[in-house]
Each structure stands twice: as C-alpha cells, then as structure tokens.
Amino acid sequence: MSDTSFDYIVIGGGTAGSLMANRLSADKSKRVLLIEAGRKDDYHWIHIPVGYLYCIGNPRTDWLYSTEPDAGLNGRSLRYPRGKTLGGCSSINGMIYMRGQSRDYEQWAQLTGDDAWRWDSVLPDFMKHEDHYLGDAAQAAQRDTDFGRFHGHGGEWRVEKQRLRWDILDAFAQAAVQAGVPATDDFNRGSNEGVGYFQVNQKSGWRWNTAKAFLRPTCYGRPNFELWTGAQVSRLIIETGADGALRCTGVEVWDGHQKVRATAAHEVLLCAGSIGSPQLLQLSGIGPADLLQAHGIEVKADLPGVGENLQDHLQIRAVFRVQGASTLNTMASTTWGKARIGLTYALSRSGPMSMAPSQLGAFTRSSPDREWPNLEYHVQPLSLDAFGEPLHRDPAFTASVCNLNPSSRGSVRIRSPRFEDAPAIAPNYLSTDEDRKVAADSLRVTRRIVAQPALAPFKPEEWKPGTQYQSDEDLARLAGDIATTIFHPVGTTKMGADSDPLAVLDSRLRLRDGRGGRIAGLRVVDAGAMPTITSGNTNSPTLMMAEKAAAWVRESAILA
C-alpha cells in the first residue's frame, strides 16, 4: 500500500471485479488498483469442484451472512453465502454456465430505455470472453452450423460439459420429456426451455473461477496493476464541488491495522456484489435518507432505492427415495466408497468430486397458460436435510425447483455505521399471492414428472414434502418449510430510467445523485445493477454486464 494514487479503483475481486480489472489494466497508461476483502484463492478446496461443500460456511472463503427471520419461510432464517476471496462467488458457486432468456434483456432495455441491453446487444458481450469447449478443434464434428452465432471460443471464461452422468438423472430427463419438456443440449441460445445436463465453468475437471480467468497470469504480469487482498473498503470518499456537484474521488480502506486512503483520478468501480455494494453505498452516505440519519450518517445523496428491490431464486427441494439406483448417498456411505471417489478424481479428474452441486437442469412452465418457462430445476443424485448437512444413507434424488421470475421483493440495509457489521438481509420470500401459487404449482409439476414411466423402474417414493399435502395452502406452507436459496441475490442497486424513483443507476451503471444528476467518478458493476432477475443462474450475466461496463469506462476516459 505504498502507492495510493491510481486512475481506476475496482472494489471487489469477485466475478465482475476480476473482469473489470483485466480490461482496464490492458491500457498500460492507466494505473489500476483491485481491492479484495478476502484472501487470495490459494485454498485447495476452491479449485476442486466438490469443494464448494467446504467453502460455503467457511470464514476463509465466505462472508457468513444469514437472512432475517422470514415470514414466507414460516419464520426461518437462511444461510446466505457470498464469496470472500479472489474470484468471489465464482470461487464457491455451482459453476453452472447460464445466460437466462432473451426476454430478460429485452425487458431490461425497456426498463432502462437503452437498447444496449437488448438480447442482440448483450450476446456479443457474452461471447467476447467465452471459451466454449465445442470451439476446440477436437470437437469440430459436434458443432452445428449455428454454433458461432451463439458461442465464442478463445476467451478467458471456459465452458465445458460435465465429466460424469448418472442413470437416475438420465431417467429423470426421459421422464421430463414424457411430461412434455423437450430435450436440449444447449440452454444458452435465448430460450432455455428444455431438459439436459448443465454446462459448467470448469477446465479439465478443475473449477474455473474468475481469478484464474482474468487475473492470472495476465494482470499479475502488468506493472500498472496492483492488488490489495485482506483489505476491506470502509467507505467511499464523496466530495462536493464548488457548484454543489458530487464526485467520488477514492476510498478509505481498512487493512487490518489501519485505515488507508486511495484516490482514483478517473473512476471508482464498485463490484462488491448485491449485498456488499448497497451496504458500502449506505455507509458512505448514499441511500435512503431516513435510514442513514437513523445511524448518524451524513446524507450525501438521498437515493431510496439503494438496498431495495432485492430478488432471489428460492428453490423448493423435493426429495424422492429410490430403489435399484446408484446415488451419491450410497456411493459415499462407506470409507471404501469415499476412497474410490477420491481415487477416481486423482486419476482422471472425473467422478463425484468433479460434480457441480446440480448436474441436470430443466426449464418449463408452472402451468400451461404461462407464456414462457418460469421454472428451473436443479436435479441432484443425492439428498440431505439441509445444505452442509450429512447425506442421507438411503438412495434418493432431489428435484429442486425455483420460480425464475419472483414478484416478491426484499431489502439490504445497514444495521449500524460500522463497516464491520453485516447488514440486515430480508429477501421476503413467498410474500406475494403469485409466488405462493407458483410454489404450489411447481411441486405439482415435479410430481407429474416423477410419475412418468421412465422413472418407474426405480420406484420413486416422495419423502419431502410428502404426498399427503395436496392443496394450494398446504403446498405453499410446505414450500416455506423446505425451501432454501440458490444464492442468486440481485437488484439492490438497480439501473433504470430517469422516471423511476427507485432506480439507483442510469443505464450505463452510473450513480444518480438524487437531484436529477450523477455522482461523477462512480459506477456499480455487479448483479445488484440488474433491474429484474435473469431467468436462470446469475454468474455469467454478471460477467456480461462487466464486459459492457468496461467498454463504457474506457470510452469515457477517451472522451474526457
């Protein structure tokens, strides 16, 4: 920390921050500082795919957040993992490569009034950093003629097929087809309707996080790039000019011993995620005035939308016991079984240790009158009481289903003016009649799939929630008992049109000042900027947003 003057400061070395640091430091004339509160990604469990089990709930790699008690979950609180290490959530997530649906981005364009967010405009940003395995020379025969229209090759973000299959998952996929869900081998061409195995961000059986993809070796070899780890930004420095205009000129950083100030000549890029970014804005005097005043924080910009509009995917985990099927429950039930799993991974980088948390996916409708798929399944050849708990001993599979487009909205609000204190996270799951109805209907869809002939040889028996629950009221209440997050919080610093009073950012991710202008030198670039949640896993859309934002930042520097 001997040098504290830079052109750009990127806060957060996670998904968006890693890409931003890479793109901005490519200009050798600009000095870039990347600040990460966690440590480097040198913990071995980060890189072994099944290691998410040892990273989530571990202070070495996780912020260890929990939600407020939630009425929609019948008073339960949930563990709320967020990555605290280089690579951020890409170091502890499910590794699923998913863009969502084209209509998601058409809606963003409508809400922001900016065609830059239309599907045809964001697709090149997805492809720019993509390194899809079908682009490899050895896979040429498997590519169709449309491959190059939808996928890129040679970028930093590796996408591969999974390295194992399960008979019970193959049977579930066949059952889904029998229930009317079409088979697909690619969820990422604008319509993800169908059933198939997820593609994952792995490379030869190792997790491929954004620190590997975008920071090393590229950034580490650049003399104009500096990285601070174990350094938490305590507040943004917001200055008021003679004309009353606001500008972010830098950050205050706690390194574990003292506070250090670093300045940015051009821009500060806030990439701390949907929880960290609104918290830091509020601590810096940007947010709802009544909240800030209640904690004795000087109001720099009264922005009521900061920390509001929280959206997340809530998964309802239905568990089915089976007979005559190999599942991870039985494979990992003995010392010999665990040893064989370890040996398989050591020799071939395959088997259960190479597994993403969910292998099979499906997108379908909760009822025939839906215009588009509004459900996503994550199907797993295992079962347990709760994430992080031991596996059950009986063979079973779990069919987790989520409402892709929830209407419930929550919040992230500081509890105190201390940066060390975790904010209050209140998702407000199942707080609308529509979400409760979709929850009940989704469990019925699950039952319809499991009842198909393809699964009959395995004699599936519904364990949770249980066939005795049939009414909308019963199923919605049971959803509250057994549902949990898939870790997709978005929307807490949403972008939007000038006419939207809750829009924190403009369509180019620049901060509003609450008075019709902008806070110069400050953007938020992470999933919090999404006005609505994407119809699928959120990691890759966040990378796309960072790709687009990096281009805008460079353009602004040229025009300045």
UniProtKB/TrEMBL annotation:
Which cofactors go with this protein?
A: FAD
**Which InterPro entries does the annotation name?**
FAD/NAD-bd_sf, GMC_OxRdtase, GMC_OxRdtase_N, GMC_OxRtase_C
Q: Which SUPFAM superfamilies match?
A: FAD-linked reductases, C-terminal domain, FAD/NAD(P)-binding domain
Question: Which Pfam families would you find in this protein's record?
Answer: GMC_oxred_C (PF05199), GMC_oxred_N (PF00732)
Q: Which UniProt keywords apply?
A: FAD, Flavoprotein
What family is this?
Belongs to the GMC oxidoreductase family.
Q: Under what name is this protein listed?
A: GMC family oxidoreductase N-terminal domain-containing protein
Recite the lineage of the species.
Bacteria, Pseudomonadati, Pseudomonadota, Betaproteobacteria, Burkholderiales
